[in-house]
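Please predict the structure of the following assembly.
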Amino acid sequence: MNRKTQLTAVVAMLMGSQFALAQISPKPIAEPLVKHIFTADPSAHVFGSKIYVYPSHDIETNFSRDEDGGHFDMKDYHILSMDKVGGKVTDHGVALALENVPWAARQLWAPDATFHKGKYYLYFPAKDKEGIFRIGVATSKKPTGPFKAEKEPIKGSFSIDPCIFKDKDGSFYLYFGGIWGGQLQRWKTGMYQANGALQQANEVALCPKVAKLAPDMKSFVETPKDLKILDENGKVLLESDNTKRFFEAAWMHQYKGKYYFSYSTGNTHLICYAIGDSPYGPFTYKGVVLNPVEGWTNHHSIVENKGKWYLFYHDAQLSGKTHLRNVKVTELRYNPDGTIQTITAK
Ligand code: FUB
């Protein structure tokens, strides 16, 4: 074998090995829904005959990267719509801007939306003027806005990543919470404590929160409750179960009469899910919906349209930067026993 043939053989061997392919050219399974702006944290819903996506709108920022997520410095929301998955995606422009939220100072993070009695409701987290994350609500006659924000955040709300869920009896529940930059660890006592510490490895993991909404859709009827996630043996997850325990990005959906609570594990970058029999839980951990994507964060929503189920998610394909993400969609499949088939997106 001469030198040229030897070299060609080595390159061919490297390119042919799984390792080389994974390292050299990871190929994502889906393309960004839009490329003209950065978008993240997609909450998808079907209203009428269209799919609407309520994402965060990522932007470049002067804030440097920190453990509190200061580099996620979003200032408005844009809503996307499409007739079907794979169809043309429309960006409806600014639906709500930070400057029009009287109580908010910065960081419009992951939102969600719902429809009730002729109105659309947008739920969103932002830091108030004291630097504390609260959850606000804004309303519109149209799913694409413009939305008008309430003067104050929802009383008794805190932390981030609201998910609004309508149960079969017509009641609405708000799920929320996020650790680290999302400040959930500062609310362990029910009061805000600026120095609230993260859990130790042997302590019970922090729970996401759930509260039932009042008929006005702008207030809670109760103090937010812990949403318990148990392991296969009925034991509550510990902080050290960090490939299973909740970190942020709550989502709730129903499938064949069961409640599916899904969420990100944060620093282990998975979207996991747990199944329960009531909107309040308890939930039993079942597995992974989505393996880690490009970028630090992982965030998703699950929605049915025209007889198929879809996972909306994000990665950092366009920018390669964790705080400049792009939303995507792929089909999600259930096994006959109701478990979800794990998706690997890259
Ligand atoms: O987009 C800002 C934050 O990043 C979200 O609130 C988290 O879920 C993570 O995706």
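The first helix runs from residue 3 to 16. The chain has one domain: 3-332.
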